[in-house]
Amino acid sequence: MSKTQYYCAASLDGYIAEADDSLGWLLNYEGGFDGDGVEPGPRGAGGAYERFYQGVGALISGSITYEFVLDHLAEDSEWPYKGKSWWVLSSRDLPVRIGEDVDVRIVNAKVADLYDEMITAAGERNLWIVGGGNVASQFAGEGLLDEVLVTVVPVVLGAGKPLFDHRLPGGAMQLLGTRAFDTGMVELRYEIRR
């Protein structure tokens, strides 16, 4: 059965981006991330991102995350999310990446109204909330978030865009596992209790 998973990186003090949406702190982290931020994954993780991504059938994000990917993807490069439907929540008109086996849907809707369609598109795989905190909070608020996977980067930002943008309903999350990387980063995996 498909799960809805929020998978991202965050600073030690719980921010996923700086106040101006910059990810420079993450992309320039000395321990490093493979790729250019478009295909994330901590170095030295033994293929953790690749294994996670193999389990993804569909994606959803806010417009800022989607625009980040477009801005950091070379115009002539292959779309890294081929074969997977990607919903982008936005009240603005955004450019849509066109290409073979590319399915990007810009929508202005509530996650609860889109959920069944997204889970159907994911098939036997999972729905990945790519970002940001507002989108993840919407899923949690509707009782539609199953797991949180966060790679904690040992950097303190002091301010910025939080992992979640408001308190989640229910009690504490259940820790499913941890994984430490040689770079000082730690992956935490939580199940949402309902």
Q: Topology, pairings included?
A:
Elements: E1 4-11, E2 15-17, H1 24-27, H2 48-54, E3 56-62, H3 63-72, E4 85-89, E5 103-107, H4 111-122, E6 126-131, H5 133-141, E7 147-153, E8 161-162, E9 174-180, E10 186-191
Parallel strand pairs: 1-6, 1-7, 3-4, 3-6, 4-5
Antiparallel strand pairs: 2-8, 7-10, 9-10
Description:
With 194 residues, this protein is an alpha/beta fold. It has one domain: Dihydrofolate Reductase, subunit A (3-Layer(aba) Sandwich). The protein contains five helices and ten strands. The protein has an eight-stranded mixed beta sheet. Strands 2-8 form a two-stranded antiparallel ribbon. A hairpin with a 5-residue loop joins strand 9 (174-180) and strand 10 (186-191). The longest helix has 12 residues, at 111-122. It is globular. The relative contact order is 0.25.
Strand content: 25-35%
- Rounded mean pLDDT score: 89
Number of strands: 10
Radius of gyration: 16 Å
Strand order of the largest sheet: 5-4-3-6-1-7-10-9
